[in-house]
Amino acid sequence: MVYKILFVEDDQQLIESLKSTVNRIRREDLLEFKIEFANSVNKAVELLSTEIDYVIIDIKLDGEETGDVLVDKLTREYRIPAYVVSGTPEKIDSPYITVYKKGEKEYGSLLKDIAQEIDTGLFKVIGNRGIIEESMNNFFWERLYKNIELWKKISSERNSGETEKIILRYTLAHLQELLDQEIVTYEPLEMYIQSQKTDLNQFKTGEVVYNIDKKKYYIVLSPACDLVLRNGRPKVDNIILVEILDADVIFKEKTEVISQKKKKKRVIEDLLKNNFSNNLYWLPENSFYPEFKGGFIDFRNVFPTQYDDLVSNEFELKFKLQENFVKNVLSQFSVYYGRQGQPDFNFSKLTQDIIDKVGSYPDVEHS
Question: InterPro entries from the xrefs (predicted)?
Answer without folding.
Answer: CheY-like_superfamily (IPR011006)
